[in-house]
Amino acid sequence: MPLHDDLTAAQRSLDELVRSLGLLEERLGSGLEVRRVRTDAGHLRESLALLRAAVPAAYPAAGPDLVTISDAPYDAALWSSAASSAAGDYVDDEGIGARDRHAP
Description:
Elements: H1 3-28, H2 32-58, H3 82-86, E1 92-93, E2 97-98
Antiparallel strand pairs: 1-2
Helix pairs in contact: 1-2
């Protein structure tokens, strides 16, 4: 999930928390505990606003590096080794070994 979406989800959750605190305050009254939680929610709102303001400067939006893959068929000359082109006696496939030779 992109960073902007994460921040938006956090903001929605915080808004839902504030709404729920309002409902609790209606049921329980505005006692000390409810005021503390409401104050903490206010601090979270301020901190999230500061984070949202700081993020674009710290993390610029960078798109993925795209690589274009051609639809043209492969050039067979690219897959032959220099030795086989010059001497014509073997092709060394990387990691496989050479023709007419065995691994030790």
